[in-house]
């Protein structure tokens, strides 16, 4: 699972950051813990090693292992966590399911064929990086735009980074 056999005779300081991280995770699992605390576990890892690390985390989670992961790279966590805790200046500003954090405020980013018309139909929204940023129920917003003849090219909800900003007043 950790692909370490070819490195058995090497010292930890002789391994790449990715391999060293695998060794540390494998060592942490020797006693089959139910909980693992990981502080910035993907720091200094290349993209391939990061993906591999998170695949291992997902596989272990399916086996019942819980991970508490501290990270400043929130976009990575979005795809693998079920719950989040935001801490700002030592205070917990949010604790709950990731979907609750992501949907707080129901901020939606839409790329539409006619942003000005979309703004008129919705009576709100601001353009940001080519996207129309609106708050509201996703289904209602989409229905209003489609009924008004505005074609939605793409849409996305708030990211974990954006949710963090909301809960920490950044």
From TrEMBL:
GO molecular function: ATP binding; ATP hydrolysis activity
Gene3D superfamilies given in the database record: P-loop containing nucleotide triphosphate hydrolases (3.40.50.300)
Keyword vocabulary terms for this entry: ATP-binding, Nucleotide-binding, Transport
Keyword Nucleotide-binding among record annotations: yes
Boundaries of every ATPase AAA-type core domain copy: 13-76
Top-level lineage group: Archaea
PANTHER family in the record: ABC TRANSPORTER ATP-BINDING PROTEIN ALBC-RELATED
Protein's UniProt name: ABC transporter
Organism for this UniProt entry: Candidatus Acidianus copahuensis
Taxonomic lineage: Archaea, Thermoproteota, Thermoprotei, Sulfolobales, Sulfolobaceae
């Amino acid at each position: 699972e950790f692909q370490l056999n070819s490195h058995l005779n090497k010292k930890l300081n002789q391994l790449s950051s990715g391999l060293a991280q695998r060794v540390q995770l494998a060592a942490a699992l020797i006693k089959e813990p139910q909980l693992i605390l990981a502080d910035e576990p993907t720091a200094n890892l290349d993209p391939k090693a990061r993906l591999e690390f998170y695949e291992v985390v997902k596989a272990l989670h399916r086996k019942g292992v819980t991970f508490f992961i501290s990270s400043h790279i929130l976009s990575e966590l979005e795809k693998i966590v079920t719950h989040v805790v935001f801490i700002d200046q030592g205070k917990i500003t949010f604790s709950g399911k990731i979907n609750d954090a992501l949907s707080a405020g129901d901020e939606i980013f839409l790329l539409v064929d006619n942003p000005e018309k979309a703004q008129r139909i919705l009576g709100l929204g601001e353009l940001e990086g080519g996207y129309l940023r609106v708050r509201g129920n996703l289904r209602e917003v989409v229905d209003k735009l489609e009924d008004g003849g505005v074609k939605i090219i793409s849409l996305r909800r708030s990211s974990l980074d954006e949710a963090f900003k909301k809960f920490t007043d950044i």
